[in-house]
Amino acid sequence: MALIDKVPGDLDLYIGGMFTLRRREALEQAKITHVLSVLRTPLDQDLFSPFKHMVVEVDDVEDENLLEHFPATNRFIQKGLEGGGGVLVHCAMGKSRSATVVIAYLMQKHNVNPSEALSHVRQARSMCEPNDGFMKQLELYGEMQTPDDVETCPAYQRWVYQREIELSRACGQAPEADKIRFEDEHVTDENSGFELRCRKCRQKLATSQYLLSHRSPSTVDDQLTEMPSAAPSQSCAHYFLDPLSWMRTELEQGKLEGRFECPKCHTNVGKYAWQGMQCNCGEWVVPGISLSKGRIDEARKTKFDIRRPPGTSGPPPLGASQAKEYL
Fold first, then answer.
1. Which of 144, 165, 196 is the last residue of a domain?
2. Domain span at residue 224?
3. Given this model, what pLDDT does residue 125 score?
4. Catalytic site residue 128?
5. Which of 91, 128, 198, 262 is catalytic?
6. Most CB within 10 Å of its CB: which of 25, 33, 43, 221?
C-alpha cells in the first residue's frame, strides 16, 4: 500500500486513517492543503497545522446520520481542490466513514451510483467498505440526485421521519407530535390514480399516491417479485398509508394505537398502531396506519369517473351519465 492513498483520476483527492496524518513527508509531497476528519474522537490539533481543517463528528454505526453532512463535505472537498491543493479525507481506519464521504463527493461530481463510486475508491484503498447504513444513505442520496441541500428534499424528510418512528418504536412509545410527518402537507399531486372515500358519506379520505405497498408472503413465494403497485392485494383487508392531516387530532394524542373516524360522519374507518400492524395477508407494516377496505370505496379516475368498490375489476357496469351521479 502506498504511503498515502490517492483516489484514481485527475483529482488530488486522498483517503486514509488517523495514522496517515503522521506521515508528514507524504502529506507534503501530495501538497495536502485541506483535511476532512470524519470521526468522533478527541483530536490532537497539532496534527492539523497548517491545513484547513473540517471535522464531522459521527460514529461508525449504521443508524448514524451521515447523509445530512454530504452537502457540506462536498463543498469543503471542492473548495480545496479548486484552490490547487490536495484534500485528505480520513476517519479512524480509512474504511467506512471516510469512504462514504468520498463516495458522496464522486457521486455528485461524476454522476455515478454508489457501487461505481465504491469500486473506484477501492482502486486506491481496497479495504474501503461503508457500513450497511451508510450504503443505504448513499443510495438515497443518489435517488435524490445528490442535491446541494438535502434537508428540503421530501425523500430526506421521509427518511428522517422513518428514523424517528423506529426510535419511538424501540422505546415502546408513540412519536412526539411535532415529529409526525403528515404527507399531504408536504406532497400534493392531483394526478393520483384513484381516491379513497368513506363508504357512508362519500368524504374523500386519501388518494392512491399516499398508499404504501406491502408484499403478501404467498405472492413472494409464488412469484418472487414485489407487488407492482401501491394498491393492496385483493386478499388484504386494509389500505396502509402515510399519516394525513385529517388524522392529526387522533395521532397527536400520544397513544400507541387507536382508531380513525371519518371527519365528516364520524364512522369508524380505520385504525393505527405505531408499533406495527399485521395485515390479514400475513405482512407486517410499520407503522401501521390503515383504512378498512370494508368501510371505504375506491373512486377510480377513469374517463367515466366511476366509483369502484375495492377489488372490482373488468368494465364499468354503468353508463357515463349514470356514473357521474354516483360522484
1. 144
2. 184-326
3. 96
4. no
5. 91
6. 33
